Amino acid sequence: MLSLRTNSAAMSAISAADRAGRAAALAQARLSTGYRVNSAMDDAAGLQIATRLKAQSSGIAVAMRNTQNGISMMQTVEGTVQNIISLYSRMHDLAIQAADGSSTQEDKAALQSEFAAQYDEVWNQLGLQWAGEDLFITRAPQYNAKLWSPFNLQIGESSSDTMTVDLRPVVGQTPLGLKWGTTELQTVLTQNASQTIDDTAQAIDIWSAVGSALGAISNRLEHVYANLANESANTQNATGRILDTDYASETASATSAQMLEQASTAMLKQSNSTASLTLPLVSP
Predict the structure, then answer these.
(1) CB neighbours of 118 closer than 8 A, spacing ≥ 6?
(2) In this structure, is residue 25 part of a structural domain?
(3) Tens digits of residue pLDDT in 35-68
(4) What is the CATH number of the domain that holds 171?
(5) pTM of the model
(6) What angle do the packed helices 44-99 and 105-125 form, to 10 degrees?
(7) What angle do CA 129, 131, 125 make, to 5 degrees?
């Protein structure tokens, strides 16, 4: 229908140009920012899912650092435990030598002096701290020796993702070879060398069990870290599939939208001249 008042072709062209313009602007925004979703308008449900995934990824990253810190702490403690085992091994040798009848009182006094020095170093090793907190013994009232009480490692982004470190079943009620006071230490080899052989052997066994338990904890934390790394990678991939721009697809979309915008603009120009076709019909 030819009409002077209603130009249907022009309105269609305007609508097509508007749609093409908005599509081109959207594609250009995605290409310039690198994000497919730049506002909730782009993908409301996708943005909500991606926000949760990003929060999860951030939490996993912190948990990975926690896990690595836990491994470092366990390995530090394990090194100290190995030093303590070496000290008790030497003390065990000294006790065996002192128990032999061929050792004179002068020999035993010399052995006693070295035994006391080794024992003092055990207590020095037990002064190990991690981030200012005592791990084996308590130095001050405000500190608690961490390893002798259960504590949790946060190994995930959920409050339930914890790992309890509890060495009490390994240590039990045994004295860990820490039984000699200042007075007893002066005569332990000269008067009780045979008993000291058993005491130091027991200390070696218990500290070896502690070292084994620490190694098991470190191994478990290594597996936890590997699992977190896998979870982190896949979570970030899922987030990227929702939020990131697919440059191949968006480039094609931008090109198509720009061509449609140009074509609709050309058609708008042509439709505006359609009204002039009515003039010959009304001319005298």
Answers:
(1) 87, 88, 90, 91, 94
(2) no
(3) 778 778 778 898 889 889 999 999 999 999 999 9
(4) 1.20.1330.10
(5) 0.76
(6) 170
(7) 10
